[in-house]
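During the reporting period the student researcher (J.K.) took over the structure-prediction task from the postdoctoral fellow and processed the backlog of single-chain submissions. One of the processed entries is reproduced below for the supervisory committee.
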Amino acid sequence: MAEQAIKIYNLIEAAPEAIVVHCSDPRFQRAFAEFIQNELALRSGSYIPLVISGGVGSLAEPLKLPKEFRFMKERLRMFFCEYSLYGVAQHILSAQTHCSSAFLSS
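J.K. obtained the following structure tokens:
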């Protein structure tokens, strides 16, 4: 049996500039990528993507979705505190209309 070559992938050594939070809805991924690159001027690897169903939408209605609100609040606090040690000062929270997550939690 022939040996398979092991592929080595390079890591990005530079510290990230930002944390970008957005929804995981696949219909919006191209729009998010273009927004991040064109409007925020962040290239791939220069930011930490936090991609979660509904994005930050649950923060808008804590009484309607208390578990999602608590999860999102705790997750953001963890990321912001942990990565502030590395000098990440930008926190970009993105939301959009027509999110499919809103239909799942209704």
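The committee noted the following: The longest helix spans residues 66-84.
J.K. will present the remaining backlog at the next meeting.
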